[in-house]
Design brief:
Helix content is about 40%, strand content about 10%. The protein is mainly α. It has one domain. The N and C termini lie far apart (about 40 Å). The relative contact order is 0.19.
Length: about 120
């Protein structure tokens, strides 16, 4: 017997996934160098910031909570955890993600589209 189709994770309140997705914003973030000062590593990956955002254990946060990291630093972020990563590299990931979102034309378009759907 085949498995049933996968369900999207839903919010208990509204029955809809509240986390926002924007592939164009992720492309914007990926177009920057590694966010760790002085690092020129590649390839660049999009790192979701989980601490203090709408994500959680096993749940990716909305795409506005992302920063650019090289593969090595992205793996390190997951290996040692965000708080230790921020201390080690003197970086505020949540504030940096907010800066990426504010500078992203794609994220601004996404917000306008979401507002129009309300």
């Amino acid at each position: 017997m085949p498995l049933p189709a996968r369900r999207k994770r839903e919010s208990a309140e509204t029955g809809r996934d509240k986390r926002a997705r924007s592939p164009a914003h992720l492309s914007f973030v990926r177009g920057h160098e590694c966010s760790v000062s002085g690092c020129k590593g590649a390839p660049i990956e999009v790192a979701h910031v989980r601490v203090g955002t709408d994500g959680g254990t096993g749940l990716k946060p909305s795409d506005n909570w992302t920063i650019s990291l090289c593969r090595e630093h992205h793996q390190e972020q997951h290996a040692i955890g965000e708080p230790a990563f921020e201390v080690r590299h003197r970086i505020n990931m949540k504030a940096l993600a907010a800066e990426f979102a504010a500078a992203s034309p794609a994220w601004k378009r996404h917000l306008k589209k979401m507002e129009a759907q309300r």
